[in-house]
Specification:
By secondary structure, this protein is of the alpha+beta class. Helix 1 runs antiparallel to helix 2 (65-89). The protein is built from 3 helices and 9 strands; from the N terminus they run βββααββββββα. Strands 3-4-5-6 form a 4-stranded antiparallel beta sheet, covered by helices on one side. The longest helix has 25 residues, at 65-89. Bound molecules: zinc ion. The site of zinc ion has 8 residues, from loops.
Amino acid sequence: MLTNCPDCGYLLRGLPATHACPECGYAYTADMEIAGVRRARLGLWVLGLIIVWRTLAVVALSVERRWANTAFEAAVLAVLVLGWGAWRRRGRSRAIVLTREHLIERADGVERQRVPRSAIWSVEWQLSTGDIVMRDRDGTRLLAVSGMGRAAGKATSAIQAWLATKGT
Ligand SMILES: [Zn+2]
């Protein structure tokens, strides 16, 4: 059973086990669980950007003139680094949702892939690419989920545990 909406993270406490998310409208069911989720945190990056910029602007104004250039350069560098981080994360939200019968990959609130559990034989986390790769009984690649970032390892374990309960 879900505690948070896979798409927007809204807390579903107190709501029926099968319902639609009041925040984004995602229709969820009682047999769903989230294997892994990665949310776009653009807001946090923008907030960080503003705080760093303001702090360094204040520092630049208060320090001696000979340090003003250094403070300004540090501010520009910090803004570039944070801006790059924000650009990389823009609009990238991913979730792997498991139901009794299917594995569903959602990206930015849209379903991208849906694979029957019976077709998935193995799952591995490829360190080189960061992809979570699922294979069928013959070892053929069924699907790969990318962009899970740091959540990839945990998601792989959750999918393995889910596969292990097969047939029960
Ligand atoms: Zn939602």
